[in-house]
Amino acid sequence: MRRPYKKYIRLFGRMTCLMLLFSVLTAGCGPFQDVVPEEVPNEEENLVVVGFSQLGSESLWRTANSESIQKALTRENGFFLEFSNARQKQENQIKAIRGFISQRVDYIMFSPVTESGWDTVLREAKDAGIPVILVDRKASLEDDSLYTAWVGSDMISEGEKAGIWLEEYLKKEGREEEEINIVVLQGTVGSSAQLERTKGFHNIAREHSNWHILKQEPADFTTAKGKEVMEMFLRNYADIDVVISQNDDMTFGALQAMEEKGITTGVDGDIILISFDAVHDALKLVSQGIINVDIECNPEQGEYILEIIRKLENGESVDKENIVEEKVFTQENVDEYLDTRTY
Length: 343
Ligand code: GZL
Known about the structure:
The chain has helices at 7-27, 60-72, 90-103, 119-127, 155-172, 192-205, 223-236, 248-260, 280-287, 302-313, 335-338; strands at 48-54, 79-85, 107-110, 132-135, 149-152, 180-186, 211-218, 242-245, 272-277, 293-296, 321-323, 328-330. The chain is of the alpha/beta class.
C-alpha cells in the first residue's frame, strides 16, 4: 500500500540517500559496492522500491536465487530493486538494511546469513513503517510481527528426505543391519539451512542405532572449504560409509578430496554420497552415478515474492510462511530434468 502523504518526503529522502549511495559507489568503498545504481526512479513511474540484502554469492544456488529475484522484480513489472551483496557477513546485512530504512524504500527483503541477531534492526524497520520480507533463510525473532512474510524451503523436510533415502537404499543393498559410519559437511553455522537439515536428518538417524555420525563439521557452503573439511575427515577416519554434504558446492570440494585419494563415490563407489540443492552441475553427477541422491532446495523464489508484494500493494493479506516446491533426484529420475535445469 503506497504512502502518498509521505511520497514527497520519501522522494527527497531517497534522492539524497541515492546521491550519497552513488558517491560511496564512486569512492569504490563502503558496503554497497555491489549495488548497481540504475537511474533513480522518478515519481511518475510510481515504482515499488525494494531494498534487497542478499547474504552473499557463496554458491551456485545463491546465484540462481539472486537471478530469480532480479528477473521478477524488474522495472517492467513495476519495481526498482536495490540489490546489496553482504558477502556472508551479518554486519553488512545490518548496514544495508539501515541504508534502505534511511532511503525510505517501500519494502525491505533479506536472506539472513544466520538466524540470530536481527531484532534490533528489524524493529527500526518496523518503526519506519517498512514491511520486511524474509527470503530463503529464517530469522529467529522475539516478535514475529517484525517481518511480514517468509519465502523459502522446508529444510527440516529436506534433511528427513536424506535420511529416508538412506534407509531405503541400505535396505535395498541388504546393509540395513550393518554398522554405518557417517560424516557430515555442514553449511554456515547458525544458518537455518544448517540447523534444519541437520535436525531433519537426525530425526531419521536416531531410529538407527547402527548409524554412527562420526563428525559434523561446518564448511560454509563453499567448494574450497568443502575440500578442506573432507581432507580432514579422510585423515581422521579410515572407514567412512556415507558422506552427507549440505550443499552441492561443498560436495564438489569433497569429491576433489576423495578423488585425490583414489576414493570413489556413488552408485558403485566406496562411499555413499548425499548432497543438497540439486543445481545442474550436481545433477549431471547424479546422472553419472557419482552422487547417489541430491535433495532439491528450490532457489526460484522471485515469482513467489512478486505475488506477495503485489498482494500487499493491493491491501490484501498474505501468508506468513510460503514454502516452495521441491523434489529428490536419483539416477532413476534425474535425466528427465537435466535439459530444463536453468541453474
Ligand atoms: C538453502 C540456502 C543454502 C543453500 C546453499 O535454502 O540458504 O545457502 O543450500 C546456499 O547452497 O549457500
